[in-house]
């Protein structure tokens, strides 16, 4: 991909600002909503993550980013199986793994293929009757970096769906991740925030509902605090993050607004950061924040920048078999 300097900065922002939001929200996780005058700062996380250390949100995004930086395609079943295996190994020592994600990964029985992951995710969904936690959306930002070319929208929808369904089977996960990735792609290429325009790419039967959800999140009076206590659900997390981004003039304001929403603060801020960074660029992440950022697997902010630049500019040749999207 031949990207302009501004586009490349925005591609980096989709990764860097997400990691910053993740680490910033870590110490406030599961806490109450915060007042507008409450200072938001980095601290020791709810699960013991260090100051500036990202949590499971970014840790699960890293293997996706690394795959794209290598030039791997997320349409390749072998690549997706390897990513599932990396998640499984990470989960064995992680301070925090989402409950649904943990059950799916341990349901693999050591078989790390795309088919096995999808089967485990589907089995978990059928066992509980639901699988719409926010754990798929929190990690989805890097997926967009592999699909910045002209006409790549359908392939991006397919990739976002397949990555989501490695752990989360429900249609809400597929739709939310597809719309968010498309919005990140659009922002990287244009510098514009346009989420509603991406709804046209998801299955027709579900477009009206998602258009209404997007419109609700974009109301002038909307606030991330509208969803405190239920933003572990992917739809509420999506709306909280969109409200945070739409109501802010820069990356820092978007992340602080997301964290002040309370509840699953690290995840909502990570989701918001991916889109806010794609709109405003990685240059919008303050230098002191960059200096603090670090996390699994021994990566720091400069490493994320390097990986994001490679992922956004590599040619990703599709290979492997196609897996039919669930409808």
Task: Describe the model.
This protein is an all-alpha fold. The chain has a single domain (5-313), classed as ADP-ribosylation/Crystallin J1 (ADP-ribosylglycohydrolase fold, Orthogonal Bundle). Helix content is 54%, strand content 1%. It contains 13 helices and 2 strands, in the order ααααααααααααββα. A two-stranded antiparallel ribbon has the order 1-2. Helix 1 packs parallel to helix 10 (251-260) and helix 8 crosses helix 9. The longest helix has 21 residues, at 5-25. 57% of the residues are buried. Residues 319-327 have low confidence and may be disordered. Mg(2+) binds at residues 55-57, 264, 266-267. InterPro entries: ADP-ribosylglycohydrolase, Ribosyl_crysJ1, Ribosyl_crysJ1_sf. It comes from Cellulomonas chitinilytica.
Compute the number of structural domains. Answer: 1
Broad shape: globular
Low-pLDDT runs of 5+ residues are 319-327
* Known CATH architecture: Orthogonal Bundle
Determine and state the CATH class: Mainly Alpha
Structure described in brief:
Keywords: Hydrolase, Magnesium, Metal-binding. This protein has helices at residues 5-25, 56-70, 77-91, 99-106, 114-128, 153-164, 171-190, 207-217, 234-246, 251-260, 265-280, 287-292, 301-313; strands spanning 294-295, 299-300.
